[in-house]
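User: I've been trying to design a sequence by hand for this structure and keep getting stuck. Would you show me what you'd pick, starting by listing the structure so we're on the same page?

Assistant: Good idea, let's start from the same input. This is the structure you sent:
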């Protein structure tokens, strides 16, 4: 956290932070990064999504003479950033393939005339010889290389053009470069430094913790119903993303939510490009839309007010989970990362692994990834240490904002139960699925049990004092821990693994967590931001003013003001422009443009005298 030093005069960077962006304090390492770049040095910036990377080059761009060139692979995102900057009174433009010839010429002329503080360019355009020579003719303040991990050939966002960006170091050795990414791992970091900053630079690593995101993982019973209850209890009217394993499931879930009265749309690779684009545009431009998507959705969307990300199926890895859930709550307001998973997910994923035809080394890596993910899901303590630990960061736990901290799960000594289950798998021939195994343990004389003579095995009925749900939980946890494996043919049968022997022989003991229904508990001890009553008429009035304004200007609502800013306005209840100017997120440009209108909306509310206060105090 930055401390306020009231006695020192504000630096130029601080003044711009307030006057242009409307913010009071720098976050994390922003100040150091800005100072480094302003001084003309290179910087490598690793910050989580929503951490505030953009300001790290936007403020130096305003301080240093000349134009800043921002390289970004994401066209929609460039457009958004330029809109947002324009709304703060900053001269910025885009140069990419999405422009018509006229606009492009006009933007190029502004660039040549020195009329732009920032220009956003796609890498392939930047690398064209005419563009490079154009840049040699103008004054440049810096190069910002966004999504810098695209230079990594090992990552899933690899862009070959990024490899050629080393030309910048050769042709513009005197212009500082700042490379930014939200990908933390060490190998990628090394590659970025080597390829994009071959002449050196300082590295800035921020914590990757996202304190405003509440992580929770529940046991899947009826996934769609559970999702519905979760959205109804915590996110009615909010924007959210629901990630699904398959296209069909994305379709089904969207249809189901729509039937329940929510605005929900599917997004997956099976839809044609126009439909996908239309759904994505609606998600960005509307409030309270839910997208049910396969993993194809989300990259390059920096909608700040996504209030929840739900997983109805297991993500691919902890990294994917972190990336996908990271799309929630970029604005710093409370958000949920919610997941349900069950025994069949574990079986399915373990099967996919066992059918993999990848080379052995790759398979080993995939297995380790899965083990970490399952361990995270079954973890009984604070979610943050295993999550951040996977990204190479220590966390002390006890975060107060995850399911396990809010509702510590009970654990029990499951050694005896585990042995019964394992020996039941063994006695029945290692080829039956969970339902049948539980029937045998409970001593149910089903047709199948009789057909295979399993009413005569020694484990028949030995587990009758444990209920069906708990047996499923035991089997799932044995699978998650790798004591059981699914049969390789994919019929859902379970068999023993090498490692379960010690457990079977009673040489080790095992504790398991008791499954609880995923709770919708709302209290939290680490609320850092005010909680808005989204039903209150004050909130709704401000939001509808914002929506009208956004429609008239053809920009997403958050370009006008973020939710966080609207909430801060409601809390401050300004009655003059001077008071409004002190609210976080209100810069000079927006004050001049919208200040009067906002005061009128607030005035209108005064005169109709609404009873309920819209702001609930934290906690
Ligand atoms: P990133 O690119 O790292 O994902 P952004 O640059 O989009 O994040 O910033 C995320 C949000 O945080 C934006 O809404 C931005 O306006 C806001 N923000 C950035 N820095 C500050 C700050 N110092 N004080 C308040 N809000 C900030
Ligand atoms: Zn926790």
């Amino acid at each position: 956290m930055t401390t306020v030093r009231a006695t020192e005069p504000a630096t130029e960077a601080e003044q711009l932070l307030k006057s242009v962006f409307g913010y009071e304090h720098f976050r994390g390492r922003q100040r150091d990064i800005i100072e480094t770049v302003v001084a003309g040095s290179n910087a490598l910036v690793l910050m989580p999504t929503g951490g505030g990377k953009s300001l790290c080059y936007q403020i130096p761009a305003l301080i240093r003479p000349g134009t800043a060139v921002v390289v970004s692979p994401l066209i929609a995102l460039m457009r958004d950033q330029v809109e947002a900057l324009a709304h703060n009174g900053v001269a910025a433009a885009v140069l990419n393939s999405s422009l018509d010839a006229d606009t492009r010429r006009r933007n190029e002329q502004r660039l040549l005339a020195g009329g732009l503080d920032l220009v956003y360019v796609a890498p392939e355009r930047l690398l064209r010889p005419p563009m490079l020579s154009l840049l040699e003719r103008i004054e440049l303040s810096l190069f910002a290389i966004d999504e810098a991990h695209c230079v990594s050939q090992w990552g899933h966002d690899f862009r070959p053009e990024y490899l050629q960006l080393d030309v910048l170091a050769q042709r513009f050795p005197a212009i500082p470069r700042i490379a930014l990414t939200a990908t933390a791992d060490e190998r990628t970091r090394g590659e970025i430094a080597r390829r994009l900053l071959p002449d050196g630079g300082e590295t800035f690593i921020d914590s990757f913790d996202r304190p405003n995101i509440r992580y929770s993982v529940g046991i899947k019973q009826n996934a769609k119903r559970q999702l519905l209850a979760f959205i109804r209890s915590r996110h009615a009217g909010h924007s959210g993303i629901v990630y699904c394993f398959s296209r069909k499931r994305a379709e089904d879930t969207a249809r189901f939510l729509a039937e329940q009265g929510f605005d929900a749309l599917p997004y997956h690779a099976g839809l044609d490009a126009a439909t996908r684009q239309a759904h994505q545009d609606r998600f960005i431009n509307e409030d309270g839309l839910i997208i049910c998507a396969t993993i194809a959705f989300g990259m390059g969307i920096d909608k700040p007010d996504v209030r929840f990300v739900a997983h109805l199926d297991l993500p691919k890895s902890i990294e994917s989970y972190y990336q996908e859930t990271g799309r929630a709550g970029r604005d710093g307001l409370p958000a949920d990362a919610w997941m349900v998973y069950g025994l069949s997910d574990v079986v399915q994923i373990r099967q996919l692994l066992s059918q993999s035809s990848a080379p052995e080394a790759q398979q080993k890596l995939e297995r380790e990834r899965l083990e970490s993910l399952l361990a995270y899901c079954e973890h009984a303590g604070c979610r943050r240490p295993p999550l951040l630990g996977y990204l190479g960061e220590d966390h002390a736990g006890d975060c107060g904002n995850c399911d396990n901290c809010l509702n510590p799960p009970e654990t029990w000594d499951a050694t005896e139960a585990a042995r019964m289950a394992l020996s039941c798998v063994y006695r029945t021939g290692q080829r039956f699925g969970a339902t049948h195994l539980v029937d045998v343990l409970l001593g149910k004389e089903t047709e199948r049990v009789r057909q295979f003579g399993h009413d005569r095995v020694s484990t028949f009925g030995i587990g009758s004092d444990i209920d069906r749900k708990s047996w499923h939980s035991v089997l799932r946890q044995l699978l998650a821990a790798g004591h059981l494996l699914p049969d390789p043919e994919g019929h859902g049968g379970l068999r023993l693994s090498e490692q379960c022997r010690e457990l079977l022989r009673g040489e080790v003991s095992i504790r398991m967590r008791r499954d609880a229904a995923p709770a919708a508990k709302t209290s939290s001890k680490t609320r850092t931001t005010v909680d808005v009553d989204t039903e209150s008429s004050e909130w709704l009035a401000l939001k509808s003013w914002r929506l009208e304004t956004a429609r008239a200007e053809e920009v997403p609502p958050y370009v006008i003001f973020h939710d966080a800013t609207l909430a801060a306005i409601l809390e401050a209840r300004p009655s003059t422009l001077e008071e409004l100017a002190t609210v976080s997120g209100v810069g000079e440009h927006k004050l001049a443009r919208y200040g009067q209108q906002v005061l009128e909306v607030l005035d209108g509310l005064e005169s109709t005298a609404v009873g309920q206060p819209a702001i609930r105090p934290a906690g």
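That's my pick for every position. To get oriented when you compare it with your attempt: The first helix runs from residue 12 to 21. The pocket of zinc ion (ligand 2) is lined by residues 382-384, 399, 402, 404-405 (CB under 6 Å).
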